[in-house]
Amino acid sequence: MTANGTSYYENLPSGDRIAFWDSIKHQLCQVIPVNPDRLSIHGKPQYDPSLEGKQFLFRVEIKYTRAAGQRSVSKVINDLRTLVQQKSITAIQYYDNISMLDETYGFTVTREYNNSRSTLHQPPPSAINACIFNFSQFVGKFQI
Q1: Strand, helix or coil at 31?
Q2: Can you tell me the distance from the alpha carbon of 7 to that of 11, in angstroms, rounded to the nearest whole number?
Q3: Can you tell me the distance from the alpha carbon of 90 to that of 141, in angstroms, rounded to the nearest whole number?
Q4: Percent of the chain at pLDDT above 90?
Q5: Which terminal CB of the chain, N or C, has fewer other CB atoms within 10 Å?
């Protein structure tokens, strides 16, 4: 999230913060596109300790599917990468909340094999670079 986006979130009344995360999810589902049942936003942001300014990181989960006509997790990831990194020329710029994603970060993917579908590897705070996507047996860390 950009510094302005972080400031905007911090100044929201606590009751509006849930609606903020719902809006982030809805807007991402529209631009990627992905079925809303496959995307979860976890609204417990962490501040990025590697930056001097205040910017936070948040976690997103993309659920794996074998359903016909549904985009694969890798396609969703590639689309999200392009949309964020090229924000100034993509639909993201027209949405109020996802336009606050920081295009200078984009995101980087790190996959860790996870034998347990219910366990999500939680890296140390300094290793979290924005979003953590859980795709069934793989965990990826993203920077947005």
Answers
A1: helix
A2: 6
A3: 23
A4: 38
A5: C
Has this prediction a pTM greater than 0.85?
no
List of long-range contacts for 103-109, beta carbons under 8 Å, 24+ apart: 105/129, 105/130, 105/143, 105/144, 106/81, 106/143, 106/144, 107/80, 107/81, 107/131, 107/142, 107/143, 107/144, 108/141, 108/142, 108/143, 109/77, 109/140, 109/141, 109/142
Query: Encoding tokens for residue 109?
Result: 């993917």
| Distance of alpha carbon 68 from alpha carbon 109, whole angstroms | 25
Q: Which of 76, 79, 91 is nearest to 37 (CA)?
A: 76
- Give the up-direction half-sphere exposure of residue 115: CA atoms within 13 A in the CB hemisphere: 0
In this predicted model, what pLDDT tens digit does every residue of 31-63 receive, in sequence order?
A: 999 999 998 887 678 887 777 778 888 877 888
Q: Enter the tokens of residue 9.
A: 């979130």
CA distance 43 to 22: 9
Are the beta carbons of 63 and 37 closer than 8 angstroms? yes
